[in-house]
Amino acid sequence: MATPTVARCWRCQDEHRPQVFCPACEALQPLPPDIDYFTLFGLARHPRLDEQALAQTYYELSRQLHPDLHQTGTAQEREASLQNTALVNRAYRTLRDPVQRGRYWLALNGEPLGKENNKVPPALALFVFEVQEKLAAVREARPAETEGTQDALAGLRAEMTQVRDDLDDRMRDLQHRLAANFSKWGQADGSSALLSELKRVLSEMAYLRTLTRDVEKALSIL
Amino acid sequence: MAYTERVVEHYERPRNVGSFAAEEGNVGTGVVGAPECGDVMKLQLKINPQTEVIEDAKFKTFGCGSAIASSSYVTELVKGKTVAEAGAIKNTEIVTELALPPVKIHCSVLAEDAIKAAVADWRDRAEGAGAPKKDAA
Ligand code: FES
Ligand SMILES: [Zn+2]
Prior knowledge:
The structure holds two protein chains of two kinds.
Chain A (H helix, E strand, L loop, with lengths): L6 E2 L6 E2 L20 H4 L10 H15 L9 H22 L1 H11 L13 H20 L8 H35 L6 H31 L1
Antiparallel strand pairs in A: 1-2
Chain B lengths: L4 H8 L14 E8 L4 E9 L6 E9 L2 H14 L4 H5 L3 H8 L6 H23 L10
Antiparallel strand pairs in B: 1-2, 2-3
Helix pairs in contact in B: 1-2, 2-5, 4-5
The complex binds FE2/S2 (inorganic) cluster and zinc ion.
């Protein structure tokens, strides 16, 4: 995912760092498809970013790239406007969401989340299976057939609500740890420790998100 | 996502769902997860310590249909195999059997990893003297 550092303008041949418009002649440029998303938005390559600046640049770029504006341009410019728009949208969706951004950051650093990462920490696995057993019990309770046993249903509902709140708390805690990890990048301490911590946090978030989804589903049938 | 017939078949009638009783010996347990999608899989193998043949297998998978089908299929596949043979099973075998599309390949990798983790766990326990550890989760 290394971003080429030099691009050449298709119109005036000027050489410059990859960007949407040629700084010399202002022609719309096809962006290298593997340009890194931070560079694309003119941001420093760092997982902690200024979300307001990101949004602002995004809207600005979207406006400048809008295919309507380039209808009368050359074929290259019309094509570039379409492709850049798609790329900019994808990049924005990735960077504005801390979880997606974190995963992208891992990939940029050559450590995609799924790489050699199939171990679920035992305590987490225990928790996941415990909750899933409860969910199985909910499904078996078959609310439709347990009419008249309102107390039992209310009990299950209370228990599930408790589990959901617990999951929400854990998720909030993980969000804080994610933000804390982002802030530490670029400081003196070795990035390999930060990488593995980032992997741990994002993995746990993924497992808990799946679990939350299943809990919500169970709550909806209770 | 449209599932293939064989996936649906395993998904609707999963084989060998469950776990072995905690006090049952000679069981190796593998718990693995796919952090991209948050799915988790637990595979347990009951192994004859003399012959190293897998006599029974059970699974619990919380995840997509392909992951459930992969683990269900694997429990059938490993029975009667030695741990060495089971450890050599490649996910491509699962992909072919279930006709999994490219986006579902990681689900079959999860099942392959689960076998390896279960075998490793069984070896750990066997080496840790005859006394199996209590916590099987
Ligand atoms: S989608 Fe992740 S295991 Fe199937
Ligand atoms: Zn130019």
